[in-house]
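Bump. Still looking for RNase H type-1 domain-containing protein structure tokens.
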Amino acid sequence: MEQLCRNFLWGHQSGTRKLHLISWDTITQPLASGGLGVRRLRELNEAFLAKLCWGLLSDREALWSQVLIHKYEMAGASRLKFKATHQASWLWHAICDVWEKVVGGIGWSIGSGQQVKFWTDLWTASASPLLELASEEVPEEARNRCVDYYADRDRGWIWEYFQHILPMSSLLHIAAIPTPSDDRGADLPIWRLTSNGNFSIKSAYGLLTRDCTQEEKDIWRVVWKWKGPERVKTFLWLLSHGKLLTNEVRLRRNLAPSASCPLCQDHTESILHAIRDCPKVREMWKSLVPRTAWEQFFSHFGSMAEQHHETKEELRVWSGVCFSGSNGRMWKNISWLPPSNGWIALNTDGASKGNPGVAGAGGVIRDTKGRWLDGFVQNIGVATSFVAELWAIKGPTYPD
Ligand SMILES: [Zn+2]
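Sorry for the wait, here they are.
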């Protein structure tokens, strides 16, 4: 089936073969990673299975969950351990295989703290369980302790139990989480790969396939966010992969009699020659690019003369420079309005230095004349800016 997709993409007709300029591996990467976001069927199937895994965890009361849980005797077992027996159905085998791969996407939101394992589950903003971050071996008998063991209703987190073996970053992550308490209900599983904590096939698919660096993503964003016809975006995409079918490439593939540029006949038609350095093309650029920017524009990664084989990286940088538009920010005037008579106003804000980063929250209470009545500030630990805002709304927490 994937063969059919490939052929369609490159415009095959029966009896003809077209060049596949870009590998299937690359095409099946997300747009942000330089691909076309075409899904790989095997991984897509696994992502759908992951949805079943998630359902077993988050919707345990549903009839189908209950059937599977009791059939495979999971009722008493840890909620995060699925195991296939020999007689199990193919569906159960498939679920258990996928489970291993998606378990890293599951985290917990702490309520009572009675179901989540302090050392082995993912419940802080850290990417790995605390057990792996500890500087010393955690005693065997402590590993199964739940989060509520490490907090006290009145005193908050009991730091002396764990602060000597965890790095500062983890302690700050813990500080950002409200301490467990019975009246906050059960601990809830959250899907860590979406901002709202709900499972999505798309994010599971992302987890199952390779992801690229942020730096690369920024480059591809420039290409796909470019405002203009799809045809041009596709051209930019091929260009950024260094895969335009220039005469230089065609000669190498025995598709053209010579490598020279059809416009000027003087030079080899490499990619950079075709889009920038050919004298005919240059004239056009000069009418578009401001004179003051010519030098930078035409000298990026050297002149054409000594550079026949520009690398992908260089092309991406250049197209990034040329095609990035404004980032859409705009100015807006805002001001504070005092509350009407008889009312007081509470303004709060939370912020983090980096996202996530060291975070704080605070608020001021003012009267109708704008006079300061009271205020609070609070250190939070390390949290996302969103969490910091929530702490600010929650208001000060004083040990009593
Ligand atoms: Zn030329």
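Residues 302-309, 324-330 have pLDDT under 50 and may be disordered.

Edit: fixed formatting.
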